Amino acid sequence: MGDTKYKATLSPGGEGRSGWCVIFRHLGTSDRDEAQRLVDQANVILSDDSLWTQGAREFAEKSFDHRIVKAFYDDLVPTPRDGWALRENVIGLPKDGVARVQFLGTTGAGKTTLVRQLIGTGRRDDKFPSTSTARTPCSKLFENPVLI
């Protein structure tokens, strides 16, 4: 399922229309009546926003052709990714012989300033790690042990 590659094509908008249609999914039929039935089913889903959630998929599977259900719901919820594992695949950090340090403190205590000094990014033009009164992506660094 994840290896399926789709290719979008461009098609004239139809009689009396000056626009163009982008077609991105072939539903596997050459029968015009069947194709129209599938289009009608897709339009029912598209016109009812209560069907636009993953929770509505079970109802849709009972009510619509499996090809329409697959076309609409398969990529509705993104596949979860493990950010730490992805990072490790790109930037493998050493695990042995490296001290783990965890910085704890309230907002404004100087955790990010200390990290900037340690990694040499304390200049005004260098904004890493990011700082904010709200949570930032770097706040995750301070919740888990940081390899330094």
Structure, explained:
There is one protein chain. The chain has 148 residues and is mainly alpha-helical. It has 2 domains: 9-73, no CATH class; 83-147, no CATH class. It is built from 6 helices and 4 strands. The protein has helices at 32-47, 57-63, 66-73, 83-90, 111-119, 139-143; strands spanning 9-12, 20-23, 100-101, 146-147. The strands form 2 sheets. A two-stranded antiparallel sheet has the order 1-2. It has a two-stranded antiparallel ribbon with strand order 3-4. Helix 1 crosses helix 3 (66-73). The protein is elongated. The two termini are 40 Å apart.
Brief synopsis:
With 148 residues, the protein is mainly α.
List the helices and strands in order: EEHHHHEHHE
- Average pLDDT confidence is 77
Q: Enumerate the spans where pLDDT stays under 50 for 5 or more consecutive residues.
A: 139-148
Q: What oligomeric state best describes the polypeptide chains here?
A: single chain
**Tell me about the biggest sheet?**
2 strands, antiparallel
Strand order of the largest sheet: 1-2
Number of strands: 4
- Please give the count of helices: 6
State the helical fraction: 25-40%
Radius of gyration: 25 Å
End-to-end C-alpha gap: 40 Å
- Secondary structure class reads mainly alpha
* β-sheet strand percentage: 5-15%
Salient structural properties:
148 residues, mainly alpha, 2 domains, two-stranded antiparallel ribbon, 6 helices, 8% strand, elongated
